[in-house]
Specification:
This protein is an alpha/beta fold and about 400 residues long. The protein has two domains: about 170 residues, Alpha-Beta Complex (Aspartate Aminotransferase, domain 1), CATH 3.90.1150; about 230 residues, 3-Layer(aba) Sandwich (Aspartate Aminotransferase, domain 2), CATH 3.40.640.10. It is built from 15 helices and 14 strands. The strands form four sheets. A seven-stranded mixed sheet has the order 2-8-7-6-5-3-4, with helices on both faces. Strands 10-14-13 form a three-stranded antiparallel sheet. Strand 5, helix 8 and strand 6 form a beta-alpha-beta unit. The model has no long low-confidence stretch (mean pLDDT about 95).
Length: about 400
């Protein structure tokens, strides 16, 4: 590793999402009322059948093959083929300790430049820096649902000397909560320039309208699908994710397998056996209830924040909204978020952490600060949710949004 890269690593900060979670916990311990709108973790319990499978396999203390348990890779491939209209088999799947690790190792294995839409998840760019990959940002706007247009994408590609490019697409998106609706035009450009696409689909099963479309279904030959258990299954701490890599990218897959073997060796055996149950069983009832709650909470936050002072798009999946505070006057979005935290106790992440200019007064809001297990118990049957349910099962959402709205109105 050269000196320049070591200097760059020294300048990196801890992951913004983990840092805000630790800061929020520290403030709570000191006695301050904090609304944890900064950290995006599923509030829901893992389905009982999956937990039971973990318990039943807890005695399995041996190493599994590096690429992942064969049965697990088979059920993941079947899951993708059914839901994404893919044509994967078990050899296309690599199981890792969360998709974050697999993305990092892919950045190391990949020889080329990285294309990132702004906004993008906070760890994409730091991983590229560590891997010595050059990042090219494609600025987007709310008018394009926070995704790049074909024109902006091609314009950026033409300005880059290195044409071996990896584009990351994350839909539903972190931080905006929006879904990419112009996949076809992005694919037209991708085919023209032979882009590799890494499709981060970690929130795909939490798309509110049940009509999720993967870019891999229309560009299968050069799209890597990335997903895992953390969001839809409430199993973030279990650390299990996977990549599905098409045969046409076999060289990159083989390089990734070598890096996996020299880093994490293999994922926890009990967790892998439990994951078989997660992908094999029908969890449609669980997911229906989870999405019912998430979409209701999301729309409550959206309806109560949108105003002349706050521009925000309606969330379409996942855990987030991306409000812009049009009346805020601060030196940076980071300073704005500090002011919000100090005055209201609401913890948000600044838009600058996601690749946007620091002078844009935008922040990411996660609406998951509630007890998901308790909320699930309260909506048994086909009961329609109302504001009374929200006040009962998600009081921090109600109070935090009220405090944030009051802060915005005071500007």
């Amino acid at each position: 590793m050269n000196k320049l890269t070591k200097k760059q690593i020294g300048q990196l900060k801890p992951s913004a999402t983990l840092a805000i979670n630790e800061e929020s916990n520290k403030l709570k311990k000191s006695g301050k009322k904090v609304y944890k709108f900064g950290f995006g973790q599923s509030p829901f319990p893992i389905p009982e059948s999956v937990v039971l499978e973990l318990k039943n396999n807890s005695s399995k203390n041996f190493y599994l093959q590096m690429q992942g348990l064969e049965e697990l890779r088979s059920v993941i491939a079947n899951h993708l083929n059914k839901n994404n209209n893919n044509n994967f088999n078990k050899e296309n799947i690599i199981v890792g300790p969360g998709t974050k690790e697999l993305m990092f190792l892919t950045q190391i294995a990949f020889e080329g430049d990285i294309l990132l839409p702004a906004p993008s998840w906070v760890s994409y760019q730091p991983q590229a820096i560590i891997a010595k990959n050059k990042v090219h940002w494609i600025q987007t706007t709310s008018n394009s649902n926070w995704f790049p247009t074909a024109e902006k994408l091609e314009e950026k590609i033409k300005s880059i000397k290195n044409k071996n490019l990896l584009l990351l697409i994350n839909s539903p998106n972190n931080p905006s909560g929006t879904v990419c609706k112009n996949l076809e035009e992005i694919v037209d450009v991708a085919k023209k320039y032979k882009l590799i696409i890494l499709s981060d689909e970690i929130y795909s099963r939490l798309t509110f309208n049940d009509q999720y479309k993967s870019i891999s279904s229309i560009y299968p030959e050069r799209t890597i699908v990335s997903s895992g258990l953390s969001k839809w299954c409430g199993a973030g701490g279990w650390r299990l994710g996977f990549f599905a890599i098409p045969d046409q990218l076999a060289e990159l897959k083989n390089s990734l397998k070598i890096l996996c073997s020299e880093s994490f060796t293999s994922v926890s055996a009990p967790v892998q056996y439990a994951a078989v149950r997660a992908y094999k069983d029908d969890h449609s009832d669980y997911l229906m209830k989870v999405k019912k709650i998430l979409s209701f909470v999301a729309n409550y936050v959206y309806e109560n924040l949108k105003s002349n002072a706050i521009n925000v798009l309606q969330p379409e999946g996942g855990f987030y909204l991306f409000p812009e505070f049009t009346s805020a006057k601060f030196s940076s979005s980071s300073e704005m978020c500090k002011d919000i935290l100090n005055k209201t106790g609401v913890a948000l992440l600044p838009g600058s952490d996601f690749g946007l200019p620091s002078n844009k007064m935008i922040a990411r809001l996660s609406y998951t600060d509630f007890d998901g297990a308790n909320f699930l118990k309260g909506i048994l049957g086909s009961k329609k949710l109302d504001d009374a349910d929200l006040k009962k099962y998600a009081p921090n959402i109600v109070d935090g949004v009220s405090a944030l709205k009051e802060w915005s109105n005071s500007l």
